[in-house]
Amino acid sequence: MQRTNRKPSEINASSMADIAFLLLIFFLVTTTMDMDKGLLTLLPPYDGEHIDAPINQRNALEILVNANDQLLVDGELMHIRDLKEISKVHVNNYGNNPKFSDSPQVAVVSLKNDRGTSYERYVQVHNEIRAAYNELRNEFSERKFGLKYKELSDELQKEVREEYPLRLSEAEPEDFGELGMD
């Protein structure tokens, strides 16, 4: 047997940089970026002044959400599925029931969360409140104009919003514990 002195074959690495660059471009192009999600809320412009307008207690629906995601509405334990209906009754009361608001224009929904409240519960509560206002606006626009709220012109939608303004007051989250709920 005859041995030949061959040098071990080498891998040509001159194109490795090109391959790495192509892979980088491929992954940049094919990767999707998740967009942040949140609540679509238009905040009023900040004017630098803090005004505490007096509110008749009857006109405020107080909603507290504790660290266990339990709801306390005007001092009573409530399930999330009932929040939309109680919000509608409060806003659309027109002074009939002394426990609820005088009219939709002065009705306020006051929301206060515990620091331990989950984000999911916070969003659920917001959704139920907004759903109540959406239903009230739809009912009003169908009675007055014969069309759903979204089908109205911008001018008529503004008129409906003036009749049913969304007045949601949110307090700074704090630790208020169990709220007497077990």
Could you tell me the strand content as a percent range? Answer: 5-15%
Low-pLDDT windows of residues:
none
Helical residues, percent:
25-40%
N-end to C-end Cα span: 90 Å
Main β-sheet, in a few words?
5 strands, mixed
Strand order, sheet with most strands = 3-2-1-4-5
Overall shape: it is elongated
Helix and strand succession?
A: HEEEHEHHE
**Rg over C-alpha atoms, rounded to the nearest angstrom:** 29 Å
Q: Counting H and I runs of at least 4 residues, what is the number of helices?
A: 4
Annotation, overall tally of beta strands = 5
Q: What structural category characterises the helix and strand content?
A: alpha/beta
Description:
- There is one protein chain.
- Helix 2 packs across helix 3.
- The longest helix has 27 residues.
- The chain has a domain of 114 residues.
- It is of the alpha/beta class.
- The chain has four helices and five strands.
- A five-stranded mixed beta sheet has the order 3-2-1-4-5, covered by helices on one side.
Which helices and strands appear, and what pairs or packs with what?
Elements: H1 16-30, E1 60-65, E2 71-73, E3 76-78, H2 83-91, E4 108-113, H3 119-145, H4 154-163, E5 168-170
Parallel strand pairs: 1-4, 4-5
Antiparallel strand pairs: 1-2, 2-3
Helix pairs in contact: 2-3
